[in-house]
Design a protein that fits this description.
This protein is α+β, with helices and mostly antiparallel strands. 51% of the residues lie in helices and 14% in strands. Helix 1 packs parallel to helix 3 and helix 2 packs parallel to helix 3.
Length: 142
């Protein structure tokens, strides 16, 4: 699970970073640093998008804050796409949570069930997939 969390953090960081670059979008407050399995969000300090596993996985406040900051970056990017047209993403982001009318789930691992955390990650990845599709179509149509 640790290797997949590290790989997923790196891949999602690279994807959002690449989408932002492709659309000349600049994030407010944070910078995404895609660095493979050691990717992180740079703010006033470095927030990892990876963890070292074990019991520490469930107690890693910096990892949780990194995920919240990543969600903030994703929200900024999705909002910029929605403002340009009549496109709405399937899941909405509210601070550290993502969801729809059926419910919102925390992106934080700490004090969260594995099932709810997995749903939050799933919703985040679905929104990212839609963003990739929108950006790819907009680039193709130019």
């Amino acid at each position: 699970a640790v290797v997949s969390t590290q790989s997923t953090g790196g891949q999602t960081a690279l994807l959002l970073y690449s989408l932002a670059k492709a659309t000349d979008f600049n994030f407010q407050r944070f910078q995404i640093v895609p660095y493979g399995s050691q990717s992180y969000i740079q703010g006033e300090t470095k927030f990892p998008l990876y963890t070292h596993g074990g019991l520490r996985l469930f107690l890693d406040a910096k990892f949780d804050q990194g995920m919240v900051n990543f969600l903030d970056c994703l929200k900024q990017f999705l909002d910029s796409i929605e403002k340009k047209g009549s496109f709405n993403f399937p899941y909405k982001i509210d601070k550290s949570k993502i969801g729809d009318q059926k419910g919102f789930y925390s992106i934080k691992l700490h004090f969260n069930s594995e099932e709810q955390w997995t749903k939050a990650l799933k919703y985040m990845l679905i929104d990212l997939k839609w963003a990739l599709t929108v950006v790819a179509h907009s680039k193709r149509d130019k």
